[in-house]
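Re: the request from the purification team.
They wanted to know what the chain is likely to look like in 3D before they choose a buffer screen. I agreed to run a prediction and write the result into the notebook, where they can find it.
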Amino acid sequence: MKSVGFIDYYLDEWHANHYPEWIKQHSGGEYEVKYAYAVIDSERDGAMTNKEWAENYKVELLNSIDQLVKKSDAIIVLSPDNCEMHYELSKQALETGKCVYIDKTFAKDRETAEKIFAVAQHNNSPCFSSSALRFSSEYAKIEKKDIQSIISIGTGKIDNYIIHQIEPVIMMMGLEVSKVMYIGSQKNDSFVIKFKDERTATVNMLKGHADFSIYFNYSDSNALAVANDSYFESFIDALIAFFRTGKAPVSHQETITIMAVREACIKSKKNPGIWLEI
């Protein structure tokens, strides 16, 4: 059995509460979450303290990141709702040469994304980050060639959830993004992403529940993909494969581009109807 260590901002959150069992099951017991470290206890009403979380999940709670990275065979940096913490939380892990997965959203902006990957590359530490939506089997069925435009639909707060739409858009349409524009309203946030060849993707963040889905327009046809399968399980399979091989399923440059587009989208909301260059 190989040990996995969790580094988090606080431990009682959805990802930390589900990954341990999934990792154990999907690896056939080869990998298990054995160690954890977190900066603060969750401030959510009724949330478990880090100590209570560790006792509940039978994980050893450590006092420092230094202890965790020394004990763990592979490392997961969580903090999914506080990406501004990712450089601080991941730096020591990325200096070990061990496999490090950094949860969504990878970084608050392109500059920080480049900074994090620079540490990984300098220390030859295999590293990647991804939205789980990348691994949707419904999206995998879609033909990427000849996509002319995309209409993407989803929900949630921009800071935490826009990654789940931007990542599939870039995965499907490529890295040659030129600019973005905010075209939303008081009820729904919407963005247009324009590529250098004039193709476009519209990202729509609806209020209330909405299945993550994408409409694809080709030269002479259309297609629809709804990500309503168990894409998190597919993601866990990819994560375990990464731990086994050290080969990242997502390139650093693609993740940097995704973070740059996210950063531009958030900035564009302050100036609706005006193109913001990437």
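For the purification team: The two ends are 45 Å apart (CA to CA).
Please add any questions underneath this entry.
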